[in-house]
Amino acid sequence: MSQSTGVSARAAAPRRARVQGTVRIVGAGLLGASIGHALSALGIDVALDDTSPSQLRLAVDYGAGRRAADTDEPALIVVAVPPDVTADVIERELARHPSAVVTDVASVKLEPLRALRARGADLTRYIGSHPLAGRERGGAIAARADIFVGRPWVVCRDEETSPADLALVEALALDLGATPVEMSPEDHDRAVALVSHVPQLIASLLAGRFLGAPDASLGLAGQGVRDTTRIAASAPELWVQILGANAEPVVDVLDALAADLGAVADALREPDASGSRRTVADTIRRGNEGVERLPGKHGQNRRFETVVVMVDDTPGQLGRLFGELGELDVNVEDLRLEHSPGAQFGLAEISVVPSAVTRAVEGLEERGWKIASTTND
Amino acid sequence: MSQSTGVSARAAAPRRARVQGTVRIVGAGLLGASIGHALSALGIDVALDDTSPSQLRLAVDYGAGRRAADTDEPALIVVAVPPDVTADVIERELARHPSAVVTDVASVKLEPLRALRARGADLTRYIGSHPLAGRERGGAIAARADIFVGRPWVVCRDEETSPADLALVEALALDLGATPVEMSPEDHDRAVALVSHVPQLIASLLAGRFLGAPDASLGLAGQGVRDTTRIAASAPELWVQILGANAEPVVDVLDALAADLGAVADALREPDASGSRRTVADTIRRGNEGVERLPGKHGQNRRFETVVVMVDDTPGQLGRLFGELGELDVNVEDLRLEHSPGAQFGLAEISVVPSAVTRAVEGLEERGWKIASTTND
C-alpha cells in the first residue's frame, strides 16, 4: 500500500486542476479550510460558508477561499461539518443547489446515508466521501493545503451514483493529491472502526488508567507508552459523535478485543495452566504480524532495505552523504535521522530498493562513511 | 526527557567519571553493550562477558569494552541478561566476586529479589536497578552510548542496602547521563506494569485484530493507529518473560481496563440508556487528562521548529537540499521524509533551532525550494 513512489519533476510545475467551476465548501474547519487552500492554490473559485462568523473570517483571511454568495452556482459542494449535523446540511444543500453534486467528508458514512434515505432526500446527486487526513489541532487556523497528499480518500458509490458525479468527486481527491478509494459505506465504516475509532478508544482507556497513578510511576514513562496513548489527546465532543454514529462496528471490534484481553489476563493469572505461556506468546506474536500489515512508516515497508550510516551532524554532512548517494545513483526512498544528546554521531537510516543496497554500502564505504548496519526492515 | 539536541562539541569533550575501578558487564546485548560504550568513552575499564561468543565479539569489536579475564577484580558488576536467568547470574556473580557490588538492569525487580532471598543469597552487596531505556532493535550491534541520557534509572534500595553501595550504582546511572530514581521493588513493578507492560499488551492485542482484516481496511490506517500499535513490533521471547515475571501487577491493570472497556462497549450498545453518552464522553475526557500527566511532550521536542520542504525524490535532490542547508549554515537537528502512494512530491520535515528558521526558509526559497509549511511542533 504505502509504497514510496518516486516523485516526479512534474511536482514542482503548477498542476492543472481537474475540478472545473465553483466549489462551495460548507464548514470552514480544519478539513473544509484545508480543501479550500488546496483548491484555491490550483486557481479554483472556492466559496466558503460557516455558521461561525469568526471561523469563516479566519479561513478567508488565511486564503482558503472567498465568502459564499447567494448568487453562487457551485458545480460541487463539499460538506465539512460535524457528524451530528452532516445529514441536515447535505439535505439542505441538495435542495438549495439543484444542479450541484454534493459530497461530505464525515468520518462515518452509513448513518448520514440512512438518515437522508429516511427523509426521502434525492440521493442521485449525493456521493459520500471521507479523506483519511487530519491533524491533532483543529480549526481553520490549523488548515494546511498538503494534509491530503498521499492519503486515501474513500468515495462511497452505490446504485444511485452516476459515473459523472463519481468522477467529479474523485477529481476533487486527485486535485488535493489524495488517492481515491472506492468502498461501500458498510465496508468503510467497518474499516475505520478497526483502524481509527477503536484505536482512539483503546488509547483513551489506557491513558485514563494514568489518572489514579502516582507521579513517580508516570515518571518512568517512555516513548512507547507516549506513542500508544498519543491520540488520547483528541477532542471529546467530536469523538462522542463519531463513536455514536459508528457504534455497531466499533462494538464488534471492542467485544473481540475484550475476549482477547480476558484470555491473556487469565493466562497471566494461571501461569502453570496448560497453554498459558503459549497464549501470552501468541498475543505478542499476533501483534507482530498484525502491525506488519499496516501500510506506511511503522508498518515498515517490506519493499525496501535500510542502510544505517553514521554521520556527525555538522552542517553539510548530510549534504555530502546524499550528494554521494546521488553520484552512486542510489535513490533514497525514505529516511530517518536519529540522534540524541551526548551521541558522538547521528544515524541516518536510509531506505533503498534491495537492488541498490550493495551499491550504496560499497560506494559509501569507499568514500569513507561508516555503515552502522544494514537491515531488512 | 529524550530530547534530540544537536550533537554539540561539548558532547565530544571527555567528562570525569564518578565510577572508579573496573566495571564487569555480564551480558553484551543492547543494554550491556550500551553501558560498556558509555563507560569506555569515560575511560573506565570495562570487562565484558557473554555466553554468546559472537555477541561478545561484536560488542568488543564495536568498542564496548574488553573481554573479561579470570583475574579481573571488578568494583561493580552489571548483570544485563534476559529476565529468566537474571537471578541465577546475580547469585553466581555475588559468589564469584565477594568484594564487588552487583546490580542488574532487568525490567522487573521483585521476582529476582524473591528468588535470591529464597536461595539465601547474600543480598548486602546486591542492588537491583532498571534503566528505562531501550531501542526497537536489540543486540550489541544496536548498542549506543547515549540511550540512557535523560532517562530515569530506577535504583531499588531496601533495608539491606548500604549507602556506599547505593551511591556506587547511582554514580553508574549519573555517568551514563541517566537520572537515578529510588523506588521499592513493589512500586517499580506496579509502575512499569502501568506505563510499559500493559501498553505493550494493549498494542499487541489491538494489532492482533488486524490479522483478519481485508487489505482495503488496513489501507485506511493513518499515523494515529500506527503510533498506537508501534510497540506491537517488539520481540515475543523477551516479553513473555517480562510479563510472566510481573504477572500480578499487570493483571491488576488489565482487569481494570477490561471493566472500563466493557462499560464503554455497553454504553455504545445502548446509546439511549441513561448515562451512555456520558460514559463515552468521560472515556475520552479521562484519556485527555491521563495523557497530559505523562512527562515529555509526546516525544515532541519543543526546543526546535519544523520546516517542511517539498522535494522530488530523484537521486541527488536530498543532497542538493542538505548541501544548501549546509551553505546556509543551518544545522539539521532532526528530520523525517514523508511520502506516500500517488504523492506528487515528498515532504522533508526538518527540525532546526528557532533562530535558524528564517535563514533556512528564506535561503531555501531563494534557491527555488517550495516550503510546505513552518510549524512549531
From TrEMBL, chains A, B:
The keyword Manganese is annotated on this UniProt entry: no
This protein's UniProt keywords: Amino-acid biosynthesis, Aromatic amino acid biosynthesis, NAD, Oxidoreductase, Tyrosine biosynthesis
Entry EC no(s): 1.3.1.12
Pathway annotation from the record: Amino-acid biosynthesis; L-tyrosine biosynthesis; (4-hydroxyphenyl)pyruvate from prephenate (NAD(+) route): step 1/1
Prephenate/arogenate dehydrogenase domain residues: 21-298
Catalytic activity: prephenate + NAD(+) = 3-(4-hydroxyphenyl)pyruvate + CO2 + NADH
Top EC group: oxidoreductase
SUPFAM superfamilies: 6-phosphogluconate dehydrogenase C-terminal domain-like, ACT-like, NAD(P)-binding Rossmann-fold domains
Segments forming domain ACT: 306-377
Cross-referenced InterPro entries: 6-PGluconate_DH-like_C_sf, ACT-like_dom_sf, ACT_dom, NAD(P)-bd_dom_sf, PDH_C, PDH_N, Preph/Arog_dehydrog, Prephen_DH
Family note: Belongs to the prephenate/arogenate dehydrogenase family.
Protein name: Prephenate dehydrogenase
